[in-house]
Amino acid sequence: MLLTQHTIHTINSDLISKPTESSFLYPEKILQFGTGVLLRGLPDYFVHKANQKKLFCGRILVVKSTSSAGADAFEQQDNLYTLSIKGIEDGEEISHYEINNSISRVLAANQDWSEILKSAENPDLEIVFSNTTEVGIVMSEDTINDAPPTSFPGKLLAILYRRFVYFNADKNKGLTVVPTELITDNGTKLKSIVTALAKLNELSEKFMDWLDTANDFCNTLVDRIVPGALPLAEYTKTCALLGYEDQLMIMAEPFRLWAIEANSERVQQRLSFALADPNVMLVPSIEKYKEIKLRLLNGTHSLSCALALLAGFETVKEAMQNTAFNQFIRLLMQDEIGPAILSDSISVADINDFSSKVIDRFANPHLEHKWESIALNYSSKMAMRNIPLLRKWYRTHNKAPQLFALGFAAYLYLLKSKLNGDQYEQLINGRTVVLQDESAPRLHVAWSNPDKLVHTVLSDTDLWGINLTEFPHFEETVNQKLQQIIEKGALKALEISSVLDNKKYK
């Protein structure tokens, strides 16, 4: 049995949350560009949740970039899909299924453009969501009279212009645009491109004013791992468990975060779906959340990745099952990263709360997050995520951060490579791996003189933008940790670090 609006009434499993009858009748309030799993697993999840609580009462018209041959899964299933939420939350393993009916229609831009443009005349429409990947928010010399314009900003401008004309420049009929693309200042960048396109299309000054004052472009930060479709064996098992088939079923971790810059009462009123979940934050600035995520999640990944690989762990969840590694992660966040990012805007409570969620996320048994993929472009990640963290640490401390130094030493050892043709290779867990790191040649040369390796790399301002040997005791500490890894192995170094007296860092 396939999941549809007709068959949903026959589904009686206690394992599933089903949508209310009334939520199928809500008007389209959101125009969404993209059908991807992140959109369905995060923004659409929040909208659905709010609809079930009658806090938003609006559905989503989705625009996909291309049409499919024949009826696609959305059409076959009346746009219904199952979200399988699996992982660890507050230290407890959870498994939950919900049928999401937030999407009302799915239209193809190249086939249904006139109907998509017609949606701009809908008085209930208030919001635009998008996830067109990082290359979606780019300037392309689009003509808005094309059917459709080539780029996402071009399509958005065409929608806005149709709305401007239809509602006779009514400033109450602008839209709140909420992009989720993973680029810095996504809302600001999108607005600048749309504005430039409007000028390129020689649109009126009256429209330019309406575009600027009647519409809101929000910068956002999204954070949720949504692997997407279940592996075939797990999908088959889940269908048997739930009693129906669902071609659109996706999995997501329990953790979710959506920080949205909402600098006006108008935006806050329109984004009322935020009331359904405290993990949607409507805030004046998202910088705090970006900093917390970058340092505690991404930074922890970078400082533990090499250690995990050298210790023989393939996945993050496997490493977290090791007591010493688990403790290393906890102490790293609690005693070094946390104190370094503490500020007027980031409190101890903020740090502790996010750190506990990082532990849950890393330990999720349903995610196959491989350390090798985390190690891609390792040097640039270390420079962006962790070197600013080191500078913050030394503003309030005069001693080297021991766990940071261990993670950095492991990074150095991981990039001890052999040159094979034009490739730099490392033996990891008995397998030869080609290093995907733009600084691999630089580190390869540095390793030709092991006695001076640490000093050479730490003093390389081209790598780090700063001479790291100037930080008190950092060079000698990294040297000590590197020798520890070379002589005793990464796993033993982790075991030693897990019992360190963290009081000496205070």
UniProtKB/TrEMBL annotation:
GO biological process: mannitol catabolic process
Domain Mannitol dehydrogenase C-terminal: 286-485
Top EC class of this enzyme: oxidoreductase
Organism: Sphingobacterium paramultivorum
UniProt-listed InterPro entries: 6-PGluconate_DH-like_C_sf, 6PGD_dom2, Mannitol_DH, Mannitol_DH_C, Mannitol_DH_N, NAD(P)-bd_dom_sf
Protein name as it appears in the record: Tagaturonate reductase
Pfam families according to UniProt: Mannitol_dh, Mannitol_dh_C
GO cellular component: cytosol
PANTHER family found in the cross-reference section: ALTRONATE OXIDOREDUCTASE-RELATED, MANNITOL-1-PHOSPHATE 5-DEHYDROGENASE
Keywords annotated in UniProt: NAD, Oxidoreductase
Enzyme Commission number, as recorded: 1.1.1.58
Domain Mannitol dehydrogenase N-terminal: residue ranges: 28-264
Gene3D superfamilies: N-(1-d-carboxylethyl)-l-norvaline Dehydrogenase, domain 2 (1.10.1040.10), NAD(P)-binding Rossmann-like Domain (3.40.50.720)
GO molecular function: mannitol-1-phosphate 5-dehydrogenase activity; tagaturonate reductase activity
Superkingdom of origin: Bacteria
NCBIfam families: PRK03643.1
Keyword NAD: yes
